[in-house]
Design brief:
With 243 residues, the chain is α+β, with helices and mostly antiparallel strands. The protein contains four helices and twelve strands, in the order βααβββββββββββαα. It has a twelve-stranded mixed sheet. A hairpin with a 4-residue loop joins strand 10 and strand 11. Helix 1 (32-39) packs across helix 4 and helix 3 (216-226) packs antiparallel against helix 4 (231-242).
Length: 243
Amino acid sequence: MFALFITGMRGTAQNSIFLSQGRIEYERKVNLFAQIDDETDGDDAGWRELMKKTMPKFKAMYFDLFFNNNITLYKPGRDNPDNNRIWQNPAEDNIVFTNLETKQTTSKKNVGGSSFLVEDSMRKIKWKITDETRNIAGFECRRANGLVMDSVYVVAFYTDEITTSGGPESFSGLPGMILGIAIPHEHITWFATKVFNDDVPVPSLVAPAKGKKVTNATLLSELKDTFKDAGKWGKHYIKAVML
C-alpha cells in the first residue's frame, strides 16, 4: 500500500493537496495537576500535593483517525512508554465510528470494569468560526469556538484541505477536518502530529460491536446514579466520559 507522509512536506508544494481519505495521528494531552486542583477543596491541600508527587504533570496518549469521505474511525494508536497506567482516566481507550452522511455514531467506552456501546446521533455543536489561523501538522487551520453539553467551552482548529468534516472523538460539524481541539476548563487537548494519505478502504472502517448498548442520555443517567455521592471528582469523571 502506498502512503505519503504529508506533515513537514507541504511547505515546498506549489499547489494545495486536498485529501478525502487517510490517517491522522492525534496526541491527546491531559494536565493531571490542573484536574486534581479542580477536583479538590482547599481543605485537601495536603492530600493534593501528596498525589502530585506520585504522578507526572501531563499525560499524553496517541490516537489514530482513519477517514474515507463521510466515514471516520477514531481509536487508540501507538503506545507512549512514558505513561504510568496506574493513572488511567476515562476515554483513554475510546473507539468512535461516525457516519457523517447519516449523522450517526457508535462509540465503545470503558467505564471502570464495564464496557458500553453508545449508539446515537452525532453530537450537535454550536460553532462560531473566527479569523484566527494556526498551522497544525503542516496544514493551515482556522479557529472555531464551540459549546458542547450546553456549557463546555471548546476551541477547535480545522482545515478545509482535508475534505472530510470530522475530527477526534465525537467532534465534527465544521467545513473540514478538525486537527486541533482544546477544552480549557477540562485541561484536555487533541492535536494532530502527523497526517498520512493512506489508502483507507471503506470496508476497513468498522464500528465497534461489543458492550452494553446505550444512548448518550441513558449512559449519562447511569453515570449520575453511580457517582451521585462522589462530589467534585464524580462530576469531573462523568464529564470526561461523556465528552
